[in-house]
Structure formats: C-alpha cells, structure tokens
Design brief:
Blueprint lengths: L7 E6 L6 H14 L4 E5 H4 L11 H20 L3 E5 L5 H10 L5 E6 L3 H7 L4 H6 L21 E3 L6 H14 L8
Parallel strand pairs: 1-3, 1-4, 2-3, 4-5
Helix pairs in contact: 1-7, 3-4
Length: 183
C-alpha cells in the first residue's frame, strides 16, 4: 500500500470544552510526524466557509454534521486520515455519517469529560453565557448531548494529560491496523 496507513475519519465528539480540538490537533501532529497524510475539519475552518449560512437550530445542526460527513468522506476517498472535532450532540447524526462511509472508515472517539470539567475550562465563556440565558439551546445546559453507546475509543481528558490521551489514540490506531507501528 502506497500510503502506509488506512484512510479513515477520526470523529471526535463531546461537550464544548471537553478537549476535542486540542486532542485532534495533538494526534494530527503525531500522525504528521510519522509521515502520514492528515487533515483536520473543525468549527474554525467549516463554519466560516462551507457552512457559513447555517445557524444553530436543530435542523441547521443536523445539516452542519451532514455536510461535514460528506466532506470528510471525500478526504477518506482521497486516502487521507481526516479528523473532525465537533460536538455533534445527536447520536443519529453521527450514525448517519458512519453510514455513508465503508465499514471501518468511521472511528468514533468519545471525549468523555464531565460537565464540571468542561465548565471549569470554558475558554470562550460559553457556559457562563448559557447559564445566564444569553445563549439558548447550548449543548449540556439546555440542549441534550447523547453520549456514544459503542464508540471505537473513549478518552477521559479530565483524568489524563493531553500527551497520554493522544498516545491512547495513536496506540488504538496502531493496534487496529490503521497506521504502522512507530519506528
């Protein structure tokens, strides 16, 4: 195989502040250092362009995830390991993305951090605003987050260091034959 890796979607899901983007970036850095082809799709590069016209209604959130899934599939088809870091609160939306790719190409990574941990991090002050009623339909406060029932991997960012969490993801990818063992 030319690429030395199996292309797939690493779908990081969890509450705001759980560490999705931070972990996705750290894992991507490690994969890049191993010479593997990777790309990250996150709120910063998707909401500003591809999904610019979408708001945060339930319908728009579903469409946001659908579009991200379709774009991620294109990256997989091109032989790339694509990481997505989105809250993606609804199980049905994540399962819809899983259904559009070949079996084994969707790797759900649950960033399992308690609401307390996420609120204590709150870099953008979003939880504070949601609790004050300034943000409506905020996941974890007045809108539900449906935790994955059978994720490929679950990572507790409130209990381990970033380095340990990233290494857990890398080791999972190696042991499941997505990437070669590190030299």
């Amino acid at each position: 195989e030319l690429k030395r890796h199996k292309s797939c979607i690493l779908w990081y899901t969890g509450l705001s502040g759980s560490g999705k983007s931070t972990l996705a970036n750290k894992v991507e850095e490690k994969l890049f250092d191993m010479g593997l082809h990777t790309y990250i799709l996150d709120g910063d590069n998707v909401r500003m362009g591809l999904n610019k016209g979408l708001g945060f209604s339930e319908e728009d959130r579903k469409e946001n995830i659908r579009r991200i899934g379709e774009v991620a599939k294109l990256f997989v088809d091109a032989g790339i390991i694509v990481s997505t870091a989105f809250i993606s609160p609804f199980r049905s939306d994540r399962e819809m993305v899983r259904s559009i790719v070949t079996s084994g190409e969707f790797v759900e990574i649950f960033i399992d951090a308690s609401l307390e941990v996420c609120e204590s991090r709150d870099p953008k002050g979003l939880y504070k605003k949601a609790r004050a009623g300034e943000i409506k339909q905020f996941t974890g406060i007045d809108s539900p987050y449906e935790a994955p029932q059978n994720p490929e991997l679950s990572v507790k960012t409130g209990e381990k260091s970033l380095e340990e969490c990233a290494q857990d993801v890398i080791e999972w990818l190696i042991s499941n034959n997505y990437i070669p063992a590190e030299d």
